Each structure stands twice: as C-alpha cells, then as structure tokens.
TrEMBL record:
Protein name, UniProt field: Glycosyl transferase, family 1
Superkingdom classification of source: Eukaryota
Glycosyl transferase family domain mapped to chain residues: 361-481
Organism: Dillenia turbinata
Protein keywords: Glycosyltransferase, Membrane, Transferase, Transmembrane, Transmembrane helix
Listed transmembrane segments: 51-72
PANTHER family, per the entry: GLYCOSYL TRANSFERASE FAMILY 1 PROTEIN
InterPro entries according to UniProt: Glyco_trans_1 (IPR001296)
C-alpha cells in the first residue's frame, strides 16, 4: 500500500556528508555553514521542541527566506551576485539535511495487486498455446451480487447505483442483497435490479456463524469489499483495547478472505493497515463530499465560528499527510498573503478585517506556536493568523470562509479532499499547478492555479479575487462553475476503475459472455453520479454505523458464547472449543478404524472358547465406536429402501444439508464436519480424497467412489441416491411430497431398474438457450467436452486407430440430469462406479500433467481446480442412456414423474455392447489383474479410486485360506504327536486297593 515517510531523527552520516560538501569554500563561510547545519541537526533530532528553540529556528529561517526565493526561477533578485552565490551554497546544505523538503520523496501506490494482475495475465497468455483450442460461448451474462449492510441513503449507495448502471451497460447482470431494508430499496427496484432482504433476525438464522462462509466451498468465490470510512477501524480499535482479541481476529479473517478491499482514497488503507493482507486497492473518487455539502446546515456559521459579517477570511488548507516541509509551505503562503493584507490595511474606505485560518492536521501544540511566531515575524497583527486542527469542525470553517488556498506542494495521486470540499461549498479556490489538480481544475474557469515556484502569482491572483473587501463577481462566477464541476468530479475514474478491477479479478466460465471493454461504457453513464434517482428518497432516521456494529457484536457474542437463542437453535450453534475437541477425537477414531480394517485380514485369529470369541468381538466393537447410542434417523434409515447421500465440503454448506432420516451427509474433508450429525468421513473410506488435488478435481464425484469402496460395510439399503447441496441452494431439492412419492414408486417397483433425477438440464441457469446435450457440455467446458469424451473412450477401450466418435445423445424433446441429484438401485450404482472409475482414469491421463504443473486445462479458459468436474457432472446421463436404463424425471415440488427418452425412441441409438455389464466387468478385471500382478511403477489413478479385485485375487485368497487351514491341521497333528511322544516319569510304587469285604471286616473289628 501507499506509505508516507515518517519524521525520523536526522542521521549522523548524512550530516557529515552535508558538512563535507562545502569544505572547498572559504574558512569563514565554512564555520558559519557548520554552525548553521549543526544547529539544524540538533533541532531535528529532538522529538519535543521547546518554544525558545522553535522561535530561534523560525527567526533564522525568516532571515534566509528571501534568499531562498532568490534561488527559485522567475524571481528577480535585488541582492548582489556574490551574495546570491553564497546563499546558494548554504541552501544546498539545507536541502541536503532535509530542511527544505516539499515531500517529493513521498510515494503512493498499490503495488501488490497490480503486479499480481499482470502476472496472471502473463500466465494466461503463456498458456494460450494449447494443442486444443479453447473457446467462449456467450450463453449468459456475467452475474454480480451487490451486498449491503442496509439500504439507507448514503454516498455509498449513490456510488454503487452509478457503478451498477455502468456495469449493466457493458453486459453485466446484477442482483442486490441487503441485511436490512431501507428507503433505497425502491430506488434499486425502479431501476430494474432484483432486491433480496436477508432475514438475519429470523429465529432460525439468528445463531448462524456467518464466518463459516469464509471457508469452502465459498472460498473460491471472488469477493470485492468496499470500505468508505474509518468507522469500522475505530470500532475495532476500541474492542482491541478492551481485550476482545477473538473478535478482532475474526475480522482479520474477513479482511483476508476478500480478494480485493477497495478504498476511495489513500488515507483509509493506512488507517486499516493492521488488517492489510496484501489485497488493498484504491479507486479514487466518491460522491461523499458533494453529498455532505448538500446536507450541511449552513446558517449563521460565520458568527458561530467567531467571524463578523465584515471579515474577509482566507483559509489555507493542505495535504492530509504530514511531512517535514509542511511548515515551510505555510510560511511561503503567508509571505505571499502579506501584500494583500497591506492592501486591506491601507484602504481606509474598507470596513473589512483581513483574517487567515490555517487548517492543519498536526495535532502537536507546538505547531500552533510556530504559526504564531511566523505571523509575528511577518508582521501580521495578533489575531489575524490562526491555526486550527482539522477535525469534525473543518467543514464548518470551510463554509464560513470567503476564499480557500491550497498550500501544499506535494504531488498526490488523488485530488485533495479539502480542496474538493471547498469547491462543493461554492468557495473560490486557489491552488498550485500540481498534476492531479491541473487534471480537474482549469485556471480561470472553475478555479485559480499558480506555479509553485513563483509565489508572486499567488499574490496577483488574490488581488483579482478580492474587490472592495469582498469576493469579486468574476470569482463568484468561477466558484459557481467549480461547485458544479466538483459535484461530479472523478465519476469517470470510479466507473472505469471498478470495470477494470472486475476484468482483472473475475475468471469467467466458458459459457459466460465476456463483458464489453471499459472504453465502451456509455459516456452519459460516467459523466455524473446518479443524483436524480435519489431526489424523491426521504432522508435517514435510523441508527448510525457504531450502533449497527454494536448490534453485530452482540450477535457475535451469542454465537461464540451461547445464549438463549443457542438453546432454541441447538442444531446450528455450538461452543467452538468443545467442537474442536470432538473433531480431534473423531479424527483419531477414524484413523484407528482405518488401521484396524487394514490389519484385520493380516493378523492371526487364535481359536478359543465361545467366551473368548464373545469377549474379542465386544472389544472390537468398542474400538470401532459401534456401540454408540443410535439416533432416530439412523434407526429409521436401517429399515427404509433408500438412503440419499449429500456430499459437502466446508461449513458453508451446512445450511443447505438435510437432517432427515432419508438423508446422510458425506464430508469430502475431515475438517468442517457437522457436530452431532451421522456424517460419513469420505477420506477415511477413500484415502485418495486426502490429496487436495484430486479432492478438488473430482469434486462431488469423490463421494461416489468413497461410498462404492466396500459398499457392503456402509450402505445396507436396496436403493442409493445423491443430492448436491447446490440443488438445495437453487431450490430444486426434493420436497416432503416428492420424497414420499419417490419412496412409494421405489417400493412398488413401478419402473424397475431406473435412474430417477430431479435437477433438469433445460432449467439450469447455464443453459439459457436450451441447447442439446453435447452443445451444453461443450459450452461449459471451453468447447472441448466432445473431444474429452472421445479421447477418454479411446483410452478406456484401447482403440488404436483414428477415431473421434462419441455416444449419441439425441435431442428428442426430453431433458437430462445435472447437479448430481439422482437415485439408482444399489447394484446399478456399483456398475456405474465401475464404469466411472475407468473413465476418470482415462480422463486424468490426458489432463493431469499440464493441469498439475500450471493449473491450466483445455476444459477451462482459466486456472481451475475443478477442471473436469463439469464433464463428470453429465456422465451419469451417458451411462444410463446407453446401458438401457430407464430415466424418469421427478418434479421436486409435486413428486409427479415423467419418463424421459423412452426405449422406443432409443432404437438404433444405444451403444449397448460398449456399456454392457459383461464388457465393463471384463475390463475392470483386466485392470485389476494388471495392478495386482504387474505392479506398474507409472502414475496410475485407477487403483486409488476403489477396490482392486479379479479372479486371481479370489484364487489367491482361497489358496491363502487353504494354506492357513493346512497349517492349522499340521500344527494340530504335531501337537498330538508331541503329546504321544513326550517322556513320561516311571512309577515308583503301586498302591493295591483291598477288596471291599476286607475293608468291611477291618472296620467291624475296629
């Protein structure tokens, strides 16, 4: 971001260099120069300057001020040439030590983002030499959403209405969203923009943590955030001082999430520097000054500011930035005003009193003392010159004065704000001929300009502006023209700036039409702000910015700490620390379960009693966490014929997922899993999804592979279905009525082996022109969908000769499935995954190298992590059509069903042999045999997408079981032999038991 040079203490080496530069001159002059430089050096080192030192410094400065002007061009020196040459030497020394500093070393700029934009354009151009040509289909307009905190009347609404009109003029489609309603709602509606009010006060949404939308899947959504004032920075600084670090850190995450944070000037990025993540950008210009000028109450301001009616007041304003030469510029302007003051004093007929007000941003008390000392040395009477710090009262002062002089010589990239305010208040302005000022101010037309190296011109202009102690009629006329010009100043810069920014930030899909060039924006849309549409809108009567932020902070507290609302909406709110602990435990359990599954078939299972078997089984259940208390949804799902899985990635999808027994979530990442939900951890079932590249490339298709991998251990239902969270977001998910109708149809077996789907291709926003299947697929894949299918099928089936055919998908008036929202019999789903694994492997073979290296692929016009996910989205249709499955559309609202692409219309169109189960099974076994027997060293995706099984695996497992059985038999025989052959101890003696009658006799005799 732009930065300003700080007022640093003078370094010793620079002082020594300045002293050595004049060593060739006479000794007397050296001693004087050295004393002068050392005095300045000591003066600039101290941070707190005392009044006496400042006074001495100013006195010395005034003594050389005339000599300094002698060194400026167009100045006629009255001193001798010898004196002038001596003075020039001293001024060189002063220049070197930084005393004569007009801020030339100050630089502004947004260096990071423009460099990033240039680098991305270079990469895009370098990747345009693909073997396959990519093309754009202008099927729909690029769609933008404007999101506001409210719809109250303010400068931001005026700016965005103007920008929106220009963007719509070059081809953008725009919708408006707001967290709160307001008077501007009708303005947007009347201009033809759809407006949606987000009901954040509703009970069901009160406790949603909006920060979850900072994560996937919304993380890749480009966001441009505009900040127009310092309210948020001041509010966050206040909470940071009170120790609320978590709140500040959350806001840092929000700043970091935005692709670009746009400011209307270069001051605000410095105020928000704590949150700078390298994404700050400045588009200069705003209607704020003109809007505030129209609303400002201007009656009796002169008397309120202490001026009488006869006073002629001149205001000297300057840059918003502080630099070392600021006081010098004020001194030069005051000296140029001295002859005009003498004219007032010498005019006995005039009753006006001459006054000068200097608006300074320096908050130090010593600076007012400096101004007073300057006024005294320039022989201004006490009370004529006054220094006032810039604050909320600066607008009142600018309204009360008669003439405004811009007294800064600093070249800036933005038209000075105080000068713009003065023009909006209808004041004659006099300014130096700086580049940014000359761009918008024409000398003698809407303002006055003077060369900064000739202060005498400033004096001449003032004498033209003042007539008989008042502003002259010609100056009034110029000020009126300036007011009209300032009202719409920099509109073109703002409009073109936002259009160029969108051009650099947005990476539009291939089916989206590229907007027109910035130069084609209609001229009438960038000449003025859209003031006319706000004329009938009533003014605001609601809370200010701080109250709105405080309200947001209260909601943040309820989310983070829990409250009464959290009890009412327990499904959405949870204590973050507990969830973190639970997530770690679940990750550890998932890892343990995966290890147990891998080791289960390798360990020796010792035989024992039934008690041992029972004990071991119980211990295994506890380690797998299978003895948890089952919720109602899990119990209901066990007995129903269908289970619909909803793939999701990131907390942002949670509001779009269902919690019914019919549905079950499957998380594509171990992070972002819903608390208390019986969701499946996809990476634990398919380790491939732990690889970020394939998790992004496959998208929701990864959930198909994860479920199909050892499906019997997870899915116990006869039918299986999937529904994308996007279907819920687009309001095409199944209603309760449609769910009931679908279950009844499945149980009745009305259509048999059928693909049921409820997201139609002909109603998809990407297919506004109602294209056929392959044309639509081409349009969303940069024109290369058919080529990708053809090459993948050639690779799958081992076609060696030149072949570019694709399976026909006829346009018979029916529709196709999109967005992965369908239902199949479980057995058919396994067959479909078997086909998909081979197809994805073939597709990955031709795309992986270039895509993994540069992020570019021929199925997208720009870098795209989800390169071939749009091809896979339509793959279910090709398989179902050519494998002779029925295809039935289910109305998501009513549940009404309609068969699509009936068998009678498919005759002669289907590639049944290519998609038959026998063919696919033999191909699958061939691949499994290669992976299991040959163990190829090349990079190969197929074995990582699911089970590797063929007849040889079965035979090997049977042989292993037979060997284990023989081993146990041999061990048993050996044990018996060892028992028989072991050495036994010889009997030492024998005990002979007497007959029973003898024992009886013996007992009788006793």
């Amino acid at each position: 971001m732009g930065s300003l040079e700080a007022l640093l203490p003078l370094r010793k080496d620079s002082l020594n260099r300045s002293l050595s530069s004049s060593s060739s001159h006479s000794s007397s002059r050296i001693s004087v120069s050295q004393r002068l430089r050392s005095r300045f050096a000591r003066l600039l080192r101290s941070k707190k300057l005392e009044f006496i030192l400042w006074s001495g410094f100013v006195a010395l400065f005034l003594s050389i001020l005339v000599l300094f002007q002698a060194s400026l061009p167009n100045f006629v020196a009255e001193k001798s040439k010898v004196l002038s040459s001596d003075i020039d030497v001293d001024l060189v020394g002063l220049k070197e030590i930084g005393v004569l500093d007009f801020g030339e070393d100050v630089r502004f700029g947004t260096f990071k983002l423009p460099e990033k934009f240039r680098r991305e354009v270079k990469e895009l151009n370098s990747s345009s030499d693909f073997v396959r040509k990519r093309q754009r289909y202008a099927l729909r307009k690029p769609h933008l959403a404007l999101i506001f905190s409210d719809l109250l009347v303010d400068p931001q609404q005026i700016l965005m209405v103007t920008v929106a009109a220009s963007l719509r003029g070059i081809g953008y489609s725009i919708e408006v969203y707001s967290l709160a309603d307001g008077p501007v709602h009708s303005v947007w509606r009347n201009l033809g923009y759809p407006v949606t009010i987000l009901q954040i006060d509703a009970k069901k949404l009160t406790n949603i943590d909006w920060l979850k939308f900072v994560q996937e899947p919304f993380k890749s959504l480009p966001i441009i955030w505009t900040i127009n004032d310092r309210t948020l920075a001041t509010w966050l600084r206040r909470h940071n001082l009170t120790g609320e670090i978590d709140l500040v850190n959350d806001w840092k995450r929000i700043f970091n999430r935005a692709n670009v944070v746009v400011f209307p000037n270069f001051v605000l990025p410095m105020i928000y520097s704590t949150f700078d993540a390298g994404n700050y950008y400045v588009i200069p210009g705003s209607p704020a000054e003109a809007w505030e000028a129209d609303r400002f109450f201007k009656e009796n301001l002169r008397s309120q500011m202490g001026f009488v009616a006869d006073d002629f007041v001149i205001a000297i304003v300057g840059s918003q930035y502080l630099y070392r030469g600021l006081w010098l510029e004020h001194a030069l302007v005051l000296q140029a005003l001295r002859p005009v003051f003498e004219d007032f004093s010498g005019d006995e007929d005039s009753k006006s009193h001459f006054k000068i007000v200097i608006l300074s941003g320096d908050s130090s008390s010593n600076y007012s003392t400096v101004i007073e000392t300057l006024a005294i040395k320039l022989r201004y009477p006490k009370g004529v010159v006054e220094n006032i710090q810039i604050d909320e009262q600066s607008e009142r002062i600018l309204i009360a004065v008669d003439v405004v002089i811009y007294g800064s010589f600093l070249e800036e990239q933005l038209f000075p704000q105080n000068l713009l305010k003065s023009m909006c208040f209808g004041k004659p302005i006099i300014a130096p001929d700086l580049n940014m000022i000359k761009k918008y101010v024409d000398d003698g037309v809407n303002g006055y300009l003077f060369p900064k190296n000739n202060m005498k011109v400033l004096t001449q202009i003032l004498r033209q502006v003042i007539s008989n102690g008042r502003v002259s009629p010609s100056a009034h006329n110029i000020a009126s023209i300036g007011k009209s010009a300032a009202r719409n100043l920099m509109v073109s810069n703002v409009v073109e700036g936002y259009a160029l920014l969108l051009e650099n930030v947005l990476r539009l899909p291939s089916e989206v039409a590229f907007p027109k060039a910035v130069t084609e924006i209609p001229l009438k849309l960038k000449e003025e702000w859209q003031w006319q549409v706000f004329e009938a809108v009533p003014p605001n009567k609601t809370l200010g910015g701080y109250q709105f932020l405080d309200k947001d902070w209260e909601q943040w507290n309820r989310i983070k700490l829990g409250g009464s609302g959290a009890v009412e909406a327990a499904e959405e709110a949870f204590i973050y620390s507990i969830w973190e602990e639970e997530k770690l435990v679940e990750i550890a359990n998932a890892k343990k379960r995966r290890e147990d599954e891998e080791l289960k078939d390798r360990t020796d299972q010792a035989h024992g009693t039934w008690e041992d078997v029972y004990r071991n089984a119980k211990r295994a259940d506890r380690s797998r966490n299978d003895l948890h208390e089952r919720d109602d949804g899990e119990l209901e799902r066990t007995g129903q014929p269908l289970c619909i899985y909803e793939p999701f990635y990131g907390e942002g999808t949670w509001p779009f997922l269902h919690r019914k027994a019919l549905y079950r979530g499957i998380g594509l990442s171990t992070k972002g899993r819903r608390p208390g939900a019986d969701d499946i951890d996809a990476p634990s079932r398919l380790p491939l999804l732990s690889n970020p590249y394939y998790r992004d490339a496959l998208g929701e298709y990864g959930a198909f592979f994860a479920i199909a991998n050892r499906i019997d251990r997870l899915h116990k239902n006869a039918w299986i279905g999937f529904q994308s969270w996007r279907a819920t977001a687009r309001k095409v998910s199944l209603s309760d009525r449609a769910e009931k109708a679908l279950l009844e149809t499945i149980e009745s077996r009305k259509f048999g082996d059928t693909l049921y789907f409820w997201a139609r291709m002909d109603t998809d926003p990407r297919n506004a022109l109602q294209q056929d299947f392959w044309s639509f697929c081409d349009s969303i894949n940069a024109g290369n969908c058919k080529f990708a299918f053809s090459e993948a099928l050639k690779k799958m089936y081992g076609v060696k000769h030149e072949w570019d055919s694709i399976p026909p998908m006829p346009a018979d008036g029916d529709t196709w499935s999109v967005m992965h929202s369908w239902v199949l019999p479980t057995r058919s789903f396994v067959e479909f995954v078997m086909f998909s694994r081979m197809f994805v492997d073939a597709l990955d073979t031709q795309i992986y190298d270039e895509h993994h290296r540069s992020g570019q692929c021929y199925l997208s016009l720009s870098k795209d992590k989800h390169c071939y996910s749009r091809v896979l989205e339509l793959l279910i249709n090709v398989w179902a059509y050519h494998s002779a499955r029925r295809m039935v559309y289910v109305d998501p609202d009513t549940g009404a069903m309609q068969e699509q692409h009936r068998f009678n219309n498919r005759k002669g169109q289907m590639w049944v042999k290519w998609f038959s189960y026998t063919t696919l099974k033999s191909m699958d076994e061939d691949l499994a045999e290669e992976a299991d027997s040959d163990h190829p060293s090349r990079r190969w995706l197929w074995p990582s997408t699911g089970e590797v099984f063929w007849q040889g695996v079965y035979e090997r497992e049977r042989n292993l079981r037979h060997k284990e059985k023989e081993k146990r038999k041999r061990q048993s025989r050996d044990k018996i032999l060892r028992i028989k052959r072991r050495t036994r101890q010889k009997v030492i003696g024998k005990y002979v038991k007497p007959p029973p009658e003898e024992m009886v006799n013996n007992s009788t005799m006793a």
